[in-house]
Amino acid sequence: MAAIISTINVNGVRAATGKTGKGMLEWLQVTEADIICLQETRATDEQTRAALASALDAGWFLAHAEPGAKGRAGVAILSRREPSAVRIGLGLEVDGNWVPSAEFAETGRYLEADFDDFTVASVYVHTGEADTPMQDQKYRFLDEVGARMTQQTRDFVICGDWNIGHTELDIKNWKGNIKNAGFLPQERAWIDSMIAAGYVDVVRELHPGVPGPYSWWSYRGRAYDTDAGWRIDYHLARGDIAGRAKQAVVERAETYALRWSDHAPVTVQYR
């Protein structure tokens, strides 16, 4: 099955849909995506459905993992066709049964949905902070995500905000971030391990050897105008679908004023 899959950290679904003129709802009206992975909805399921009401009325289906803490995290998958199965929260399949994660089943950071012959996941990895318990939690989360990724037997695309710049090409100011969360050696090595396990960084594969294309820019200063960004929103794919990716674009708004999130949608067309 051909599919266009997009991923976007909306930085609060109510804020993103509340912007008029060129906000998230207007984008949903024109996007060609079949499946959209959302991160940081920062809203309950009821609030998220209310914010996206016009899109749901237009035929989109919503699967949503509510935040575990009020106003933080929350991931979702919007799709033009209803998925055949949805799994909310991290976990593993053990002897044919789903066993939820003891720590991350209800944090609103992970969601899977099955579509025909492939599975899509939306993931939100928090920023972390070097040498703090938050960074230790980030590593534990990545370990559990990695365990689920390596367990997958179906064609699989996991999309989201990973809050990790993999290489020097993925951060404009990489020299100034060597000791900061998001560019730490252990974080970057985790992406290496997933690639070694057979996953493809689809956007990098289609844009080899070039800076970016960046998908996040700070709201501070002139980062957007000077394209001083980070590439931290990835499609990692394994199986036949990984080789079917033929085009990847970052849907960067024309101007700072037209942004509806500090991230931009990263959209990949799979044959």
From TrEMBL:
* GO MF: double-stranded DNA 3'-5' DNA exonuclease activity; metal ion binding
Comment on bound cofactor? Probably binds two magnesium or manganese ions per subunit.
Annotated site location: Transition state stabilizer: N163
Q: Which keywords accompany this UniProt record? A: Hydrolase, Magnesium, Manganese, Metal-binding
Q: Site (Interaction with DNA substrate): give the residues.
A: H263
Checking SUPFAM superfamilies in the record gives: DNase I-like (SSF56219)
| Active-site residues, record numbering mapped to chain | Y124, D161, H263
Please give the name of this protein: Exodeoxyribonuclease III
